[in-house]
Amino acid sequence: MRYLEEFRDPELAERLVKEIHAVTTRPWALMEVCGGQTHSIIRHGIDQLLPDGIEMIHGPGCPVCVTPLETIDRALDIASRPGVIFCSFGDMLRVPGSGADLFRVKSAGGDVRVVYSPLDALTLAIDNPDREVVFFGIGFETTAPANAMAVHQARRLGVRNFSLLVSHVLVPPAISAIMEAPSCRVQAFLAAGHVCAVMGTGEYPALAERYRVPIVVTGFEPLDILEGVRRAVTQLEAGQHEVDNAYPRAVPAEGNPAARALLAEVFEVTDRPWRGIGTIPRSGWRLAPAYADFDAELRFEVDGLRATEPAACRAGEVLQGLIKPHECAAFGTECTPRRPLGATMVSAEGACAAYYRYRRLEPAQAGAR
Q1: pLDDT given at position 366
Q2: Residue 4 has what pLDDT?
Q3: Are 144 and 255 in contact (CB under 8 A)?
Q4: Cβ(218)–Cβ(225) under 8 Å?
Q5: Do 187 and 229 meet the contact criterion of CB atoms below 8 Å apart?
Q6: Cα(352)–Cα(326) distance, rounded to whole angstroms?
């Protein structure tokens, strides 16, 4: 815990808050892209320490939350089939599909297993050659290298009973979609440090210039986020719009070259639907043609399955930063962690789950800051 405590020092936090107050002369709207940052902001009350004019808008950076409903339904279909071992990280098991979730499939007899790495799923495939083993590969650029490695290894070893149900999404196209939406209020971004640790910062200067917004690469601890806010507000006040790496201990400008090379080999860019948001062009990855034999959608012929979002769930508006979770009528009543309508109430990085867990059940009262 020592290394975490260094980035939770209350005296340093107070100093950063004072610096943010000192530099702020007008209202600004900042979006943190990552759901992990959202949870840190709400858990530590960072948004309540900022000047009244600084608004933190929660972005679509929760990988579980943006996995489209139709992909969840495809997972449920595959996991329900005899002879299949369906593997996933634990945070996907309670995400609701159209009529069930993976826990319900498991309780009905489906062989659904929680694993801690896609390579664990590959090992299961090697150990069970008479079964089809499928790994649910979701997430942003952060989790993609491990999924790519699992498929790469499966092909190298000749493991034919392993496949990947892919739902990878990319941050830079999401930033473009946010900025081009007519309702956009975002004036600066806190970019996700773990994504940049893989991909580097090379894609962001063009976005900062095109949309004239500061983009500050930021970590996840309270001091990381406060420093990111300080740097973003300082740029806004000076009329600047540059990419600033406030997370150099983890993010080199070039990212991880070995991981990027593997990703370029295994995946190709594709249009990708985002849950509650819609399709964003060239915003995701799918398996490249050389690895198409390992595509679970094609192997199990579920790629044509479509689904409709529940009308009562406003998760899409939450993910786009149009509303805060407690502004949804279903929040905390029809929709709770035990009975979620959408993934934002289930995921460990979901904004709705953060507001529910840390008791942000109603809008802050005027003057509460």
Answers
A1: 34
A2: 58
A3: no
A4: yes
A5: no
A6: 8
CA separation for the pair 286, 318 (Å, rounded): 26
Q: Domain ranges in the chain?
A: 25-307, 315-357
C-alpha span between 93 and 325 (Å, rounded): 22
* Adjacency order of strands within the sheet including 132-139: 111-114, 84-88, 132-139, 162-169, 278-287, 267-274
Is the whole model's pTM more than 0.85, yes or no? yes
Q: Are 79 and 85 in contact (CB under 8 A)?
A: no
Q: How many CB atoms lie within 10 A of CB 239?
A: 7
**Cβ density class 241-272: b for 16+ within 10 Å, e for less:** bebbbbbeeebeeebbeebbebbeebbebeeb
pLDDT < 50: residue spans in the chain: 1, 364-369
Cβ neighbours of 205 (radius 10 Å): 13
232, 283 contact by CB (below 8 A): no
Residues 6+ apart with CB under 8 A from 46: 40, 56, 222, 225, 226, 229
Contact 307, 71 (CB under 8 A): no
Q: Which pair of tokens denotes residue 150?
A: 């699992």
| 3 state DSSP class of 321 | coil
Q: Provide the pLDDT for residue 249.
A: 94
Q: Which residue type, as a one-letter code, is found at position 89?
A: F
CA angle 303, 68, 308 (to 5 degrees): 85
In the CATH scheme, what architecture does the domain 25-307 have?
A: 3-Layer(aba) Sandwich (3.40)
Instruction: Burial-class residue 317 by CB neighbours within 10 Å (0-12, 13-18, 19+).
Output: middle
Residue 348: its pLDDT value, please?
Answer: 84
Strand, helix or coil at 329? coil
In three state form, how does the secondary structure of 200-246 look?
Answer: CCCCHHHHHHHHCCCEEEECCCHHHHHHHHHHHHHHHHHCCCCEEEC
